[in-house]
Each structure stands twice: as C-alpha cells, then as structure tokens.
Amino acid sequence: MTLDELLKKITDRFGNRILKVYKKNERRAYVDIYPKDIVDLTKYVFNELGLRFNIASAVDDFDGFEILYHFALDAAGIIISIRAILKDKTDPHIDTITSVTRSAWWIEREIHELFGIGFNGNQDLRPLLLPDDWPKGIYPLRKSFVVPKRDSRKA
Hints:
elongated, Beta Polymerase, domain 2, alpha/beta, two-stranded parallel sheet, five-stranded mixed beta sheet, 23% helix, 7 strands
C-alpha cells in the first residue's frame, strides 16, 4: 500500500475530523486531528490499516503542546504521524491510547513526567526518569522550565 492510498483511506473514513494532512515526502506524512479524536483514529490506523505503533512524542510549541503518535507500515517504509494540539498549557490532557496498544503506556508515562501532560484513562503515570526528589509540578521539557539554582555547598 502506498502513502497516498493510506491517506485516502484515513481521510475518507474521518472526513471533517481531519484538520490537515501534510505529506512531507512519499514515505512520511502528518495527519492533524482534534485531541478528542485520538483514540478513534489510532484504533483505525492500528487495528484496521495494520500500521505498527512506533512511538509518541511531545513538543511544547507556542500555541500549545503537540502530541504526535508515530505509526509505521514497515513493509512499505511508511511513517504516519497523528498530531493533536493541546491548547490548554496550564492543565493539558488527552485520552490515552493504551486501550488501542498497551505499548503506549511507557511513553505516555515519560511524556507525563517531562511535560506534565495528563493521559485520561492511563492508570499508571508514576515517575519514570527523573530523580525521586524531583519537585512535583516542575516539567523539564516545557519552554517555561527554569533550571533551579543549586546550593553550592552541596556540590
């Protein structure tokens, strides 16, 4: 299956729920959606089109947080990233996709810890990477992050 065929299937199925499709090249595309549609679209791409969940990533953009779910069609070397923008930077949330693929659990934990983004329905968002004494509510990958001053006597 080609990238154009995949994108047509997605746009035919989801119509006006797709905000934008950006085809970077013949093997890479981005599909922008509303955050509320993340589970439906990932379920379709994963279960019906047979793409493999690769990883998720987040970006603190000026307009909000971008959450990108990257799916691969390995046989064709195709990557499709499903992108949702969370406008609320004070208390950002999106539904978990762990009901679609359990493998998203780990990366959702990481994104939660580093960006402070909540994943509704993910029952295990405990810290994963930061030290145990890391201050609660401080997210090191947010643009607003300021490195805490260290007590030079402890160095």
